[in-house]
Amino acid sequence: xxxxxxxxxxxxxxxxxxxxxxxxxxxxxxxxxxxxxxxxxxxxxxxxxxxxxxxxxxxxxxxxxxxxxxxxxxxxxxxxxxxxxxxxxxxxxxxxxxxxxxxxxxxxxxxxxxxxxxxxxxxxxxxxxxxxxxxxxxxxxxxxxxxxxxxxxxxxxxxxxxxxxxxxxxxxxxxxxxxxxxxxxxxxxxxxxxx
Length: 195
What we know:
Radius of gyration: 16 Å
Number of helices: 9
Mean pLDDT: 95
């Protein structure tokens, strides 16, 4: 039901936003319209390319930060992502598409981050996963929430890792997403354990 016309009706919200977070569970033409409007108003565009599907170069060229998992990164770059070296290769391909910031989530291995300032694998937290359904959505939402609350890059990634780790220990999608207080408590516990 989210048509390009609906998106266009919300142009003022997109224009006033710091960041626009997109994913692919709405029609692709609506995602493209939202990204186009964001770019026109200098609003940062973050794309979580899930569920995995091929995407046009015109859309990818409007993205400032892309946050694929291994499957999505392979589909979009042609590189089978299994470790830090293959993530680096996939990130290079994303940069060649015009995307400045790349974060490839590697499950329990962490997230490979690449931009003009850094290329590094930031480890995640090891937990007993029971359902990974909302892990990517949780990571993205928590990352941007932490950034907008003033966290530095490493702090935002750590918060996102914590939120995603907690989410996979619970069943469901929206019901598995932890609160800020739950993530803060989890991170304190991890720090106490030396993580």
